Amino acid sequence: MLIPNSILIVLSAVGLIHLSVHLINMGKYGVHYLKFKQFPLTKEEETISLLREDLRQKNQKIETLEQETEKMTLALLKHLS
Known about the structure:
The structure is a single chain. This protein has helices at residues 5-36, 43-80. By secondary structure, the chain is mainly α. Helices cover 86% and strands 0% of the residues.
């Protein structure tokens, strides 16, 4: 049984489009990897990363405020005694 020529042309066109989409995506990921030395994160991984960074910044701010409070307390105790 022979496959009609028109079906072969359509299927080969679909295959070429599919291949070109994959090559474009590989190019995008390759450029991103060369630029940042890691592959792009998924939305969930990016959200977790941003939340961790926000938590780290807040912890740093808390430590700074605790140090300032300690200094002010020591200055007040020194002033009172």
